[in-house]
Structures are given as C-alpha cells and as structure tokens.
C-alpha cells in the first residue's frame, strides 16, 4: 500500500509530532508514504486573496507531482486537505481551468488521482479490522472525545465524513480498545487564529470546547488538525490565567494514540512535545 505523502508546512514545524507519529505508524503498518519531492505550500487561506488561479495552482502542483507517479495523496493537515481537495475538484470540473493550471505549474495535471485525509488512509484504506489486529496495548478504559473541527467536514463537497456527526476517528478509537465519547463540540470551529489577534473571542471558543470535553467525562481529546492542536493544547495555560479555569486536558493527534496502542515508543511518537503533559494519564492507563 503506497501513497504520495504531503506533509505541508506545519508538520515540519509546530506540529512535528503529527509528522513523527504518522511516519512511525506507517512503518509499523507497512504503509509506504512517498514524500512528494520539492512539495510547496498549499497556499492556505492567503493565496485566494491574491487570485483564484494561484489558490488552485499552488496545491495542484503537489497533486501533479503525485499524479506523475500514479499515486493518490495522503494529507495530514486539515487545511491542506481542504485546499488540495478543492483544487482537485476545481480542475476536474473545468477544462479551461485545467489548461490554465497546467500552464502555470509547467506540467500537465488532469486530476486523475485522489486526495485522502490521513484519517481515511488508516480507517478506510488500511481498515479497522487490521488496525484492531495490530493493537498491542489496548486503550482500555481511556475515554476519548474525537475533535474534527471545520475543514475535514466542510464544505459538503469536500467532506471526508458526515458534516454533523462524523465517526471516523471514533471508530478508530474503538478499534484501539478505547471508549469513544459522544459530545457536543466535535465539529465546532476551534477559532483558528482568533486566539492570536482577538484573544477574548478565541479563548472563549477554546474554553467552550474544553469545557464540553470535561462535561462529557473525557480523559483526553483526539484531533487531526495542527491549528486545532495548537489551540486546544497550547492555549490551556493562557485560558486558565485569564478565565480562572483549571483545564488540564491532554490533547493528542489521533496518530499518537494509534502508535501508543501499537507499542510504538512515546519518544518516537513525539509525545513529550505537548504543552499539557499527557504522561500522568498514560501511566495511569498502563500505556507507558
């Protein structure tokens, strides 16, 4: 099983543990992730302010490199997934745009390959039964709320799961032996960069999410987005100071939980890079 791997900018910087855990997990499961050579930024939300052509061409170049090698593209970052998937759909439905994009990126791109969230790679392509069969340390008794956020499930034409009640991560948690917990905030926005330029609004949004996780009785949060991880993990200390709360909710990339359950060492997964130390929880569940 082989995929073109698009790490994007965050996975080599602020979310390096997402990259580490994904690659360690792929090695464990014998999934080949061929990192796209000389990949470029997907443009995030900034390219579209310049021009629609640029917003499509930037992600399309990465897709074209994978297409040349006959590979579907696996994407970790939710924003990157959204932008790559949108570019594919735009090119696929417009011959005129396809020609313009191919000219701009100086290689043919016909949108013949697919874009998959890394969740889909593990849950759908590899399969839940196989995941369950590889578990060495079940997440027994671990109550996990799965947080999907915005860009994996919106808009509808790009969604990798149900928009209102996605279940992919929940099914993975169950396959690992954990307890998936239903809750009210699974597809709510984390506030993105509001926590930087409008702290009052950003902190309230994050606080609502963390409070809902606590109310649901969760031990931890599983996510699949670098920005969501930063907000939910890094901002807890700030929120506790400003709002006089006492959040100490461990937040994991779902790949880290998969890796732990499959016997991969915490060091290899990047567990110690978190702001909220998850080790006490993991020790209590005999996962360390």
Explain this structure.
This protein has 288 residues and is of the alpha/beta class. Helix content is 49%, strand content 10%. The strands form 2 sheets. It has a 4-stranded parallel sheet, with helices on both faces. It has a 4-stranded parallel sheet with strand order 6-5-7-8, sandwiched between helices. It is globular. The model has no long low-confidence stretch (mean pLDDT 95).
Summarize, please:
The chain has helices spanning 16-29, 47-50, 52-68, 78-92, 95-105, 118-133, 168-175, 194-197, 199-215, 226-234, 236-243, 254-261, 266-269, 279-284, and strands at 2-6, 32-35, 73-75, 115-117, 143-147, 179-180, 220-223, 251-253. By secondary structure, the protein is an alpha/beta fold. α3 packs across α5 (95-105).
Distance from N terminus to C terminus (CA atoms, Å) equals 30 Å
Q: Give the C-alpha Rg.
A: 19 Å
The share of residues in extended strands comes to 5-15%
CATH class of the largest domain: Alpha Beta
Number of strands: 8
Count of distinct structural domains: 2
The 3D shape can be described as globular
- Approximate helicity band: 40-55%
Count of alpha/pi helices = 14
Strand ordering within the main sheet? 2-1-3-4
Q: Quote the average pLDDT.
A: 95
- The CATH level-2 architecture of the largest domain is identified as 3-Layer(aba) Sandwich
Topology:
Elements: E1 2-6, H1 16-29, E2 32-35, H2 47-50, H3 52-68, E3 73-75, H4 78-92, H5 95-105, E4 115-117, H6 118-133, E5 143-147, H7 168-175, E6 179-180, H8 194-197, H9 199-215, E7 220-223, H10 226-234, H11 236-243, E8 251-253, H12 254-261, H13 266-269, H14 279-284
Parallel strand pairs: 1-2, 1-3, 3-4, 5-6, 5-7, 7-8
Helix pairs in contact: 1-12, 3-4, 3-5, 6-7
């Amino acid at each position: 099983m082989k995929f073109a791997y698009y790490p994007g900018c965050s996975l080599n910087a602020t979310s390096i543990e997402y990259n580490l855990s994904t690659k360690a997990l792929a090695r464990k499961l014998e999934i080949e992730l061929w990192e796209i050579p000389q990949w470029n930024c997907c443009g995030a939300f900034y390219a579209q302010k310049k021009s629609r052509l640029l917003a499509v061409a930037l992600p399309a170049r990465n897709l074209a490199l994978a297409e040349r090698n006959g590979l579907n593209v696996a994407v970790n970052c939710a924003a990157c997934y959204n932008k790559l998937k949108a570019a594919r759909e735009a090119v696929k439905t417009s011959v005129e745009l396809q020609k313009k994009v191919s000219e701009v990126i100086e290689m043919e791109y016909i949108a013949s390959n697919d874009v998959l969230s890394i969740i889909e790679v593990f849950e759908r392509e590899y399969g839940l039964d196989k995941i369950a069969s590889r578990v060495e340390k079940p997440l027994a008794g671990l109550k996990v709320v799965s947080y999907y956020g915005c860009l994996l499930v919106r808009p509808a034409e790009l969604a990798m799961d149900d928009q209102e009640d996605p279940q992919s991560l929940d099914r993975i948690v169950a396959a690992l032996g954990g307890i998936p917990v239903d809750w009210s905030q699974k597809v709510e926005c984390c506030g993105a960069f509001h926590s930087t330029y409008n702290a009052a609004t950003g902190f309230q949004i994050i606080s609502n999410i963390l409070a809902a996780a606590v109310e649901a009785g969760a031990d931890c949060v599983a996510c699949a987005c670098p920005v969501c991880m930063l907000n939910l993990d890094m901002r807890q200390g700030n929120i506790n100071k400003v709002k006089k709360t006492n959040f100490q909710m461990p937040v994991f990339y779902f790949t880290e939980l998969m890796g732990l359950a499959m016997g991969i060492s915490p060091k290899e997964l990047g567990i110690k890079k978190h702001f909220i130390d998850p080790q006490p929880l993991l020790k209590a569940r005999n996962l360390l």
